[in-house]
Amino acid sequence: MRGIAAAGAYVPRFRLPGDEIAEAWGTSHASGIERKAVPAADEDALTMAVEAAERALSSDAVDRDELTLATVATTTPPTEEGELLPRLARALDLPRSVATATVGGHTAAGAEALSRALDAEGPALVVAADAPEGEPAEGDHPLGAGAAAFVVADDASAPVTETAWHTEETPGVRFRERGGHDVESLDVTTYQRNAIREAVTSAASSLALDPADVDAAAVHQPDGRFPYRATADLPVSNEAVAAGTVVDRIGDAGAATVPLGLLAALDAESGDGGDADAEAGGRSLAAFFGGGTAVAVAVEGGLDVEGIDDLEGGTEIDYASYLRERGYVVNGEVAGGGAHVSLPNWRHSLDQRYRLVAGVCPDCGGVSFPPEGACQSCHSRVEFEEFEAPRTGTVRALTVIGQGGAPPEFAELQQRDGAYAVAIVELDAEAGRVRLPAQVTDADPADVAVGDEVRATVRRIYEQEGVPRYGVKFEPTA
Ligand SMILES: [Zn+2]
């Protein structure tokens, strides 16, 4: 049966404890949220989507060359929607023939994306990635970030047995305005709560599945208490709701929250997870709500989810660091011009920047990165034979760029993220050693040393001409 054949999760490493919010504002509008995930200054819905999708595609269940559809659900596209999927497809090296669709504007977007993949012919990739932002004094309190990726295929280890929709006009129930990134307030009134509970109850009750038999339920979760209230009229146990609730640890990740809750449930149902009570082959329910529509999805079985451990742990930051990372506080203008890479030149170099494509010299066999201009070994002008370098390697040299030392185009990231390390990274390819300079991310520069193992991750490099530029950075593996 068609369903989820592989899955990956990604949650940014920074965590803001709920009591930091309460201390900063005297009150917290994030009930039941102990900590929330904070995207680093160089992360957004696209970089998180790439990371989660790479993890899902690392399973050998489906070859990425066979994908016929890629669909992304997000309420916070970092670029024009038309530009999001080509970038994702390029960074993931998806077939150029892949059909693409972006779904956004409401928190049930993940259900819509999943439905399209279930209706499609052939293997499909679904990614829900979101980093909603609100006004810091209130609306932003519960908002977190994260990404969930699903590979949908026939003969899946976690078949999707049913999907039911319930649409009702619910005036005044507004969680995210279409097209906007900002949310005025996420406080939920009794009226809104009742309207959502009724819609979720109707959708879940139209399934043949008896909610009493559900082992885990990932229910619409704008805060930590909501999923329990939304299922009050259904015979779903509190244990089942807890198994599918992630908002308490990562905050409300918009369109990605319920998909991440479903992945937590499926991983627990895989039988070899941390949960000793979990039985392989359980029943999971996902209940989405957004824009007046509730969607209930029934899934059987379980699977190991690459990256699901991101839900736990992370690095705690204080409120001041949080404001900087999110770009709420960025001081000063940057003077001067600096290095300028034109858009055509940038576009021409995408295979290097995303996929680490290097070249072998046909004359001397030497390896050059980037595979352009003269051979770096014999200095002949040659037509390189291109190949993809491995995405893990070793730091061979290192420098830390402190305040004021960065080229102007990197200054904004630096103000938000602090000093950063630039390393010469060596990748051991079959054709030979590839060396390239790259930023090191997700690490305190003081903790990075020559000899460290690192892996490539696609991140935001900087913005120029109003266009965010993405490329490979490296993060320590240990
Ligand atoms: Zn050569």
Automatic annotation (TrEMBL):
Q: Which residues form the ChsH2 C-terminal OB-fold domain?
A: 388-458
Which GO molecular function annotations are given, in alphabetical order?
acyltransferase activity
Q: Which UniProt keywords apply?
A: Isoprene biosynthesis
Does the record's keyword annotation contain Signal?
Answer: no
Q: Which residues form the ChsH2 rubredoxin-like zinc ribbon domain?
A: 352-381
Q: Which Pfam families match?
A: OB_ChsH2_C (PF01796), zf-ChsH2 (PF12172)
Q: Which InterPro entries match?
A: ChsH2_C (IPR002878), ChsH2_Znr (IPR022002), NA-bd_OB-fold (IPR012340), Thioester_dehydratase-like (IPR052513), Thiolase-like (IPR016039)
GO biological process terms, semicolon-separated: isoprenoid biosynthetic process
Family annotation (PANTHER family):
BLR3430 PROTEIN
Q: What is this protein called?
A: DUF35 domain-containing protein
Q: Give the originating organism.
A: Halorubrum cibi
